[in-house]
Write a structure and sequence with these properties.
The complex is a heterodimer of chains A (376) and B (544).
Chain A lengths: L2 E11 L2 H9 L9 E8 L10 E7 L1 H13 L3 E7 L15 E8 L9 H20 L4 E8 L1 E6 L3 H8 L8 E8 L15 E3 L2 E6 L5 H9 L14 H13 L7 H5 L4 H6 L3 H10 L10 E5 L5 E5 L8 E5 L2 E5 L2 H7 L15 E5 L7 E4 L9
Chain B lengths: L18 E5 L9 H5 L5 E12 L9 E12 L12 H5 L5 E5 L18 E4 L7 H4 L1 E2 L21 E3 L5 H9 L8 E3 L2 E3 L9 H16 L7 E2 L7 H4 L7 E5 L6 H7 L9 E5 L11 E2 L6 H7 L7 E2 L10 H15 L6 E6 L4 H9 L7 E4 L5 E5 H6 L4 H15 L7 E4 L8 H11 L3 E4 L1 H8 L26 H4 L4 H23 L16 E3 L2 H7 L2 E2 L2
Parallel strand pairs in B: 9-19, 10-11, 11-12, 12-15, 15-16, 16-18, 18-19, 20-21
Antiparallel strand pairs in B: 1-4, 2-3, 5-17, 6-20, 7-8, 13-14
Helix pairs in contact in B: 5-16, 10-12, 13-16, 14-16
The chains are: A alpha+beta (376), B alpha/beta (544).
């Protein structure tokens, strides 16, 4: 089972904080991969909040293709973080030519475009680059979005992070989502590494998603080009969240009502039961069946955790004003925020959603059995 | 009687028949129960003359003949009285002295079962025991990476939806505007398929209805039953139990006078309306209730004269095109119940299923589509229709589902599959396979008759005399002397047994796949089959 960790902090932190927490939970993952989603960036990236950042791994050839493509699109590189890995990669990690993190300047002709249009175009460029590099694996693209950096690599999380030199001064962030991977695919595909990302929304999961195929079919048939990939059965959790927010216009409190709706008998007693029943029916193919713990980050930089309806996976949240962390295991939390008041630690159960918003003052909790705050 | 019998082309010997009576003289008590019970009078009292040659020792007495007579069974061999293999003789025999055995070769009877140029008609279903559904295995077992669930302890929600389900975006819009939302029923995924009042005896019907009512009201299982084309007794129409019933309208419109007249008195809406355009057992052919079974009661409910055969037309005569059928008929049926009752068509599986389905996707009222495969059963049909007409359900259902996936409407129009589910006794496994191929639920008729009422029919052409009203178990007869063999209370009890057993078996399939909170509709990654061509056709795993 993979181990998840996320942290949100008023003061920018090194990604190594999350890596160390994942390392503490090492008994629970086999070091077959690591993925990081970094947002609300500090350090050098503080100056480029609005500009899209491209994250990925490129071969030398792929880098040339990227440059040609981006110039054709009229994107100019504004800043780049050069990652110079050590000569010898750790055991299990392949030798790569280039780890790329580049901030781009928007093309002049994009000026005046609506937010939706820009968001769509950014996603389409990411998809285009991904498909261009898919054949020869010359380009592996993880994200192309403002204020977001993503890294994924095969190998032991701590060794990989040290190898990539993630403890550098320029790289400081306020929100980190990380996963230490227990690989369940025989061939390790880097696109199957969590977290997954689409248009500002990211999530990581542990456990298998037994309802994967019908969910994938449903998402693929929504006519939204971003609902693609699915090298991992967990990618659908990110896309369901995106679909709910962007296509259905619903807030986070509805996520559980979609992926783990209340049972019919519970709906009978719920004050918004009639409406929730309709929602359950319409979103029936999106019901997950666990066992899954999902942590994620929303476009507004809130981070959250939810569990499947049988609560078959561990997950705990705790912290102090200014800094909160979500962890698969208590030891990850202890290692990261030892000076918190641990009596306030919280383990969300099958009905709950827990969320820490960007203000980082408290853990917000919603229970599915409660009335909806914004009746639809 | 001539000393040498005349041999006609259709003169058959016992050896020529499909079913041959084996009778043991030593065990027989001559009680006569077998001859009395035989539904087709295939056996009769036989008076046999026997000569014994007596050859005494010595020369004093000459050899002589001793003629004796013994009584026993005589199997008739004329076409009209050929044994149907039901085995009732064996059931009633106190000593087990008699039993029908199936011929060891292809019988000669089949070449003559068309006397007077009338093709053979019968009940039952396709005489072929093979089943693709039986070959499908559930191969995605949760192992360690995700724990298998406990079928006995976990909570399961084995429910499905019948009704047009709006896509989420539209549901939100309609909800915001306080608009009309199509009615949706949350039901158990195993529906008792359409068997009409008329095809079934009153006792069988009553037993089914009681069983369904018990399942709903005592066990909380929302099981639904479809009437078939034959109307519904007024007492049921006016009762609160109507909500467990799917009323069927078919091309003969039998029983609909009664239904319409009862509309103002209905306390509950029916579960749904099924418009039958076709059925798997006799695709492209209308319903058929033969005159033997049209007695006073049936005639009254159906609004027809007594003692006449009731063949429904193959199509709805007032509908000349799919637009008419789908758009107008569905809408007018909606209108009859104030748009509160889902209306869906049922068709026989056909290579043109997708044409129908695509039309339904564009009709905002269509509440689903029931597809009945070639293995579906019937109370009466031409033998040729049953054996040779129709499309297997598995690939047809799969095509329909994948077509909906392509359109993004897989959750909007629930598909219900029927036809041969549980034909070899594997009801839960067959149902689960169809659900994972994309069905929202399944319909079954013959399994229910076999399990709940002891129907003797089989795919080896056993019994199958449902059409002429002589059902030896009283299931499909309209003769009160036969009906009374069937105790409705016992049928109801068996219905409950069947459903409880099905429920447990379904959980035993779903739990190891890690599924419990919703029906695994379209979970095709769990399926495998040891037939490469079938795997490719169904888009599931090939396993050896």
């Amino acid at each position: 089972m993979c181990r998840l960790f996320s942290i949100t902090s008023n003061d920018p932190l090194s990604p190594m904080v999350a890596i160390r927490a994942i390392d503490v939970m090492k008994e629970g993952h086999d070091g077959s991969g690591v993925g990081l989603f970094l947002t609300d960036l500090g350090g050098e990236f503080e100056n480029f909040k609005e500009q899209p950042i491209l994250s990925g791994i490129f071969s030398n050839e792929g880098l040339k293709t990227l440059d040609r493509f981006m110039i054709d699109q009229d994107f100019m590189v504004k800043y780049k973080l050069s990652i110079k890995p050590a000569k010898t990669p750790p055991a299990g990690t392949p030798k790569r030519d280039n780890y790329v993190i580049r901030v781009y300047e928007y093309p002049a002709e994009w000026e005046g475009l609506s937010k939706e249009e820009i968001n769509l175009r950014l996603m389409m460029i990411q998809l285009k680059l991904r498909s261009m590099g898919e054949q020869d694996e010359s380009m592996l693209i993880f994200s192309f979005w403002p204020d977001v950096i993503m890294m994924k690599e095969v190998g032991d999380p701590l060794s990989v992070a040290q190898y990539l030199g993630l403890d550098r001064e320029e790289l400081k962030v306020r929100v980190i989502l990380g996963q230490g991977r227990q690989n369940t695919n025989y061939a390790i595909n880097i696109y199957a590494c969590h977290p997954f990302f689409i248009q500002g929304t990211a999530s990581a999961t542990n456990g298998e998603n037994t309802a994967f195929v019908p969910i994938r079919e449903f998402l693929c048939s929504r006519n939204f080009p971003g609902y693609t990939g699915y090298n991992s059965d967990s990618e659908v959790f990110t896309h369901i969240l995106h679909y709910m927010q962007n296509q259905l216009g619903m807030g986070m409190e509805m996520y559980k009502h979609i992926i783990t709706p209340l049972k019919d008998t519970e709906l009978d007693r719920h004050p918004d039961g009639m409406w929730l029943r309709k929602l359950k029916q319409s979103c029936r193919p999106l019901i997950i069946d666990g066992p899954n713990c999902v942590i994620g980050c929303l476009p507004d930089k809130s981070i959250f955790m939810v569990q499947d309806s049988k609560k078959l996976r561990p997950g705990v949240v705790g912290g102090k004003p200014g800094m909160f962390a979500f962890s698969s295991e208590m030891c990850g939390l202890d290692a990261t925020i030892p000076d918190r008041y641990s009596n306030f630690d919280y383990q969300p159960m099958k009905y709950e959603t827990v969320l820490v918003s960007r203000e980082r003052q408290e853990i917000k909790k919603w229970n599915q059995l409660e009335p909806l705050t914004h009746p639809h | 009687m001539e000393s040498v019998g005349t041999i006609n082309p259709s003169t058959l010997s016992v050896k020529d028949l499909l079913w041959q009576i084996m009778w043991n003289k030593d065990k027989c008590t001559l009680c006569g129960q077998c001859t009395a019970v035989c539904p087709v009078r295939a056996i009769e009292l036989g008076v046999h003359r026997k000569r014994t040659l007596q050859v005494p020792v010595g020369l004093e007495e000459k050899p002589s003949n001793l003629f004796s007579v013994y009584f026993g069974i005589n199997q008739r061999t004329d076409v009209a009285h050929a044994c149907v293999g039901c085995g009732m003789c064996n059931l009633v025999c106190p000593n087990g002295a008699i039993m029908p055995l199936r011929s060891d070769e292809i019988d000669k009877f089949r070449f003559h079962a068309n006397q007077g140029g009338e093709p053979r008609r019968r009940g039952g279903r396709r005489n072929a025991p093979d089943s693709v559904l039986d070959k499908i295995k559930f191969v995605r077992i949760s192992m360690l990476t995700d724990p298998a669930l406990d079928a006995g302890r976990h909570e399961f929600e084995l429910r499905t939806l019948l009704g047009r389900i709006l896509p989420p975006e539209e549901m939100l819009k309609v909800s915001k505007e306080n608009g009309w939302m199509p009615p949706i029923r949350e039901i158990y995924p195993l529906i008792i398929g359409s068997m009409s009042f008329g095809a079934l005896s009153p006792n069988m019907w009553e037993g089914l209805q009681m069983g369904v009512a018990y399942l709903n009201e005592e066990l909380g299982m929302p099981v639904r039953i479809c009437t078939g084309e034959g109307g519904c007794p007024s007492r049921l129409l006016k009762s609160r139990f109507l909500k467990y019933v799917i009323l069927q309208i078919a091309s003969g419109y039998f029983g609909w006078d009664e239904i319409i007249h009862n509309l103002p008195y209905m306390k509950e809406d029916p579960c749904a309306i099924e418009i039958k355009y076709g059925q798997g057992a006799k695709p492209g052919d209308g319903g058929l209730l033969m005159w033997y079974k049209v007695n006073k009661l049936i005639a009254a409910i159906r609004g027809v004269p007594q003692g006449v055969s009731l063949p429904s037309p193959p199509t709805h005569q007032t509908k000349y095109s799919i637009e008419e059928a789908v758009a107008k008929m569905i809408q007018s049926m909606y209108m009859a119940w104030g748009f509160r009752v889902p209306v869906y068509p049922k068709i026989s599986a056909t290579s043109t299923t997708l044409a129908v389905l695509n039309n339904l996707t564009r009709n905002h009222y269509a509440a689903g589509l029931a597809i009945d495969g070639e293995d579906g059963g019937t109370g009466a049909a031409y033998n040729v229709s049953m054996n040779h007409m129709g499309h297997p359900i598995a690939s047809n259902l799969r095509d329909a589902y994948l077509n909906l996936v392509k359109l993004g409407k897989q959750n909007e129009i629930p598909l219900f599959a029927g036809g041969g589910i549980g034909k070899n006794g594997n009801l839960a496994a067959n149902a689960a396979a169809l659900i994972m191929l994309g069905a929202s639920g399944v319909q079954t008729g013959k399994y229910i008759m076999q399990a709940a009422a002891g129907c003797l029919g089989s795919e080896a052409d056993r019994c199958n005399v449902c059409n002429i009203g002589v059902c030896p178990k009283g299931i499909t007869s309209q003769d009160s002397r036969l009906d009374r063999r069937l105790d409705p209370e016992k049928v109801a009890q068996r219905i409950v047994d069947v459903y409880l057993n099905f429920d447990t078996e379904l959980k035993k399939i779903f739990a190891p796949l890690g599924r419990s909170t919703s029906l695994p509709i379209g979970m095709s990654d769990a399926l495998g089959i040891d037939d490469a061509a079938a795997a490719e056709r169904l888009n599931i795993k090939y396993v050896l």
